[in-house]
Amino acid sequence: MTDWGAPDGKSTALRVLVVVEDAPTLRVIQRTLGSAGDEVITATDLADAMASAGAEVPDLVLIDVGMGQEAGLAMVHHLRALAPNLAVAALIPAESLGLVTQAMALGASHLLVLPLSGDELLMTASAVRTRRAERAQQLQLAQVAELARSSRSLSEALSGLASAASRRDAAERLAVLLAQAGASSAMVYVPAGEGARQLMRLGAVGNSDGSPAFCEDLEVLSYAQSMGMLVHRVTLERQTQAILLIAPGVSDGFSALVAALPIVSSSIGLALALVGEREHATRGAMKDPRSSAYTFAYFVDVTGREIDKARRYQRRFALATLSVESRREGRQELSPEAALEVAERVLSCVRDTDVLARVDETEFYLLLPETGGTGAHTCRRRIVRQLIGAGGLRSTATRDLELAIGVATFPQDGVDLSQLLRVARHRADSSRNSTVQRLGLDRMPLPEILDALLWQVDDPSLASDPLAPRTIQLPMMEALSLAVSAVQEAARAGETRVVSVTRGGMSLGGAIRASLGSGREGLSFENVELSAHSAFKDLEVLVVIAEHGAYCLLGRQQQGQLRAVHAPDPLLADIVVQRLGEAIGARLLD
Questions:
Q1: Which DSSP state fits 334?
Q2: How many CB atoms neighbour CB 573 within 10 A?
Q3: What's the number of CA atoms in the CB half-sphere (13 Å) around residue 336?
Q4: CB-based contacts of 231, cutoff 8 Å, min separation 6
Q5: Is the peptide bond before 115 cis (omega within 30 degrees of 0)?
């Protein structure tokens, strides 16, 4: 319903709709109200008047109720039915004073007898101005009262925030309170550590798809802008304690929440600061209470120190993100028993100096000091075997477990924590859509893997996926040059492991060994002789595992041509090497 005559509280000028046929009366109205600064809109018939009333949203309507054989009288009723707040002044000819009672009954708020005088018009306009100002003041008072009520209610709900066991607990409670107060979704980001530029998402309610879990300030603001979310920064003594992202909800409470946030912001900041101080005081020995892993706050501190040492002494290190989810009965979060077992099994695969931290219900981070890319991928394979190998977890069946691991190394993939985690998380997310998972390659022998890849690759839907396999068809001499170049490029970055196939005549493995030799520092070869295996007689395989990643080429050599698929997918590289090892009865990778 259109609320004609709604006050804006910004101007005393009125918008006046005049519905009269008499030209002298119209001139009096225009001259009198125009000189007072009011806007006068005229309509010469009732149809035009109704259209103007809907389009122009007037504050006052002056209508000759005698128009159209008293049809103007019916219009008074229509206007007041559609807009109860609209002021309607009925202009009544002196010879038709009998219409006064009817006009009042139909909702006219003012009565003026024709012919009009300027004083009567000004008094009527002044009364409308006064009533509009009163309504604006009433609305403002109601808003202030509602704001006070909302602020008091939110403050009471926030009163227990300072008793939270950790900043994560406090952020989770805060996100829930924001959702209850009217937000359709809410996220709480806090600084990763004292003086840190990076932020971590510790609390979220509602849709948080695509939101960064660990990032810098600008990324949070960019995400909020892309999602149409409101951003509120919580500060205490000019230090950012949290950044709140809230999305509009369908309830009327959202506007009250937005108005109340600046009032309760200091309470939120103080509560988070107190929890942070308490957390910092015990951080040296902090363990996640739900597993034997460390907390994310401890992980951030240790990784910061590791970055400083790596920069100072030109060292390297790696970190990995592990996402482990249980799909049983549609649940994605791990049970406490499963989370504890995951932590124990991962810790059994790593050194005492490595640091495992639990980030949230499904995600772990692993810091591997003084470990390069090849060592990190070795650790990744050990973890995979532990978590989804024979038997799986005791508390969760292997078929119900989804595992995604991404690895990043310093300084190849980044020089600060946010960059490294971003790369590792991206690689973990990509592994979920790996060709190995999509086509079930882990259940196929090597020749079938190649056939499946040749049949399925170059899918247009995978064009933007950098890990998706691509087909190539080259003369064998060009393929040999490609293989040698790939190994040379990988070896420039540091330690490199090469697994290939060799046989009589031209082969990728033979060409690499002949070009690079076998005694090159940091470069190790594993040539698999397949001449005795008829199923593999024309198969060509090259797997390169280097500091910056893994590369796999798998194809067939026929009539001097190589038709193959290749991809920088570590999961595909792993499964191909595993099948080669099974063919000769040996383990080719740790």
A1: P
A2: 26
A3: 3
A4: 220, 221, 224, 243, 244, 245
A5: yes
- Collapsing DSSP to helix, strand or coil, 37 comes out as coil
β-strands 470-475, 230-236 pairing: unpaired
In sequence order, the 6+-apart residues with CB closer than 8 A to the CB of 21 are 44, 64, 67
Cβ-contact 573, 475 below 8 angstroms: no
Is residue 13 within 8 A of residue 58, CB to CB? The reply is no
DSSP secondary structure letters along 187-205: EEEEESSTT-SEEEEEEEE
Report the DSSP beta bridge partners of residue 367.
319, 355
Environment class of residue 428 by beta-carbon count within 10 Å: exposed (0-12), middle (13-18) or buried (19+)?
buried
Model confidence pTM above 0.70? no
Which tokens hold the place of 86?
């609209």
Predicted confidence pLDDT, tens digits, the chain (590 residues): 334 444 444 457 888 888 888 888 888 888 888 888 888 888 877 777 777 776 767 888 888 887 767 677 878 877 777 777 788 888 887 777 777 778 787 778 888 888 888 888 889 888 888 888 878 777 766 666 565 565 566 677 777 888 887 888 889 889 988 888 888 999 999 987 766 777 888 889 988 877 887 788 888 999 999 999 999 999 988 888 999 999 987 666 677 788 888 888 888 888 888 888 877 665 544 666 666 788 777 888 888 889 888 888 888 899 999 888 766 555 456 677 777 888 888 888 888 889 998 877 778 899 999 888 888 888 888 888 888 765 455 555 445 677 888 899 998 888 888 888 888 888 888 887 788 888 888 888 888 888 888 887 666 666 667 778 888 888 988 888 888 888 888 888 778 888 888 776 777 888 888 887 666 777 888 888 776 666 677 888 888 888 878 888 888 888 888 888 888 888 888 888 888 888 888 787 77
DSSP letter string, 296-319:
HHHHHHHHHHHHHHHHHHT--EEE
527 token code pair: 């040539």
**Diameter of the chain by CA atoms?**
121
C-alpha–C-alpha distance, residues 478 and 62, integer Å: 91
Beta bridge partner(s), residue 233:
243
- If we measure between CA atoms, which residue out of 321, 320, 331, 322 comes closest to residue 397? 331
**Helix residue ranges per DSSP H, 393-458:** 417-432, 435-439, 446-456
